[in-house]
Amino acid sequence: MPNCRYCGQSAGLFSRAHRECEASHSNGLATLPTLIADYFSGLIPAKDLAPKLATLKTDAYLSRDEIAQIAQQEIRNFTQSLQAPYHPSSMRLVSDLLSMLAAQGVAHETVNSDGVVNEFASLLIRSFIIDYCEDRLELPRVEARCQKVLRYLPVAQERLADIYLSPLDQATILKSLQRGALPPSTIMAPIILAKGEQVVWAYEGVALYQEKIVREWVGRSQGISVRVMRGVYYRTGGMRGRPVERSTMECRGVGTLYVTNRNLIFYSPGGAVKVPFKKIIALTPYTDGVEVHRDGANQRRLTMQGFDPWFLLNLLSSLS
Question: Which of 117, 144, 253, 315 gets the highest tally of CB atoms within 10 A of its CB?
């Protein structure tokens, strides 16, 4: 006889689980999200949540992956519910939850497998950097707060530059521009710059999409077919149609987007595209890029995907 997939005891002929065990498992899957949500809301203190997690894991036969998936969703919900300015207690809540999960055998790396802890840490660090740009925090305090976040919420090493190092460098550039000074650049680029032009920042791995207009002919025909002889027909009537245009975004390649003090320059092995700042009439930001609207009768939309546009938008505002 097969054993119950939950308790491991004999489940009877043609059965894979006891009804009681199945019900306990389903109840646990429904209860755990509420427990974690109540913890983030302050309804359950950490000292009460820890034993509840242990009991639920055992009695409801919850696997580590199931616990991690529920924790991921609740951490993401908590992150989305926060509003600036962020209180230090929010960092402690997530850090303590990760410790409680680790005590149940759910490792930090498992919870962060979809990047949810990285997203939370990035939110806090970005808020400190914005405070620095807006003169609410001095640079030493910003660095101290960011380091504290990284101690409590260790992000994946490969994301450290994106989450902390690059945004801090970008903030330093913006502060220099606010003071009227263009910071020196050490970025080497395979592009020809005009006199007085320099590269301020470079985004790698950017995909460029350009609008393409496709014309199609649509219509309908009418009339009758008359048989002339065996296998030969003659059709009378006519056809009415009209041209229809539709817009698509065509990928021009993946390369590096260089931001200079005068232009946006996309460079890839397949070619290069330059967009002068004075030709940009609007920018539509997305979570992972921007759409550029250019001045001119026949200028088609460009979309650049693969980076956080926060710095680019602020840079263009400072340089304009």
Answer: 117
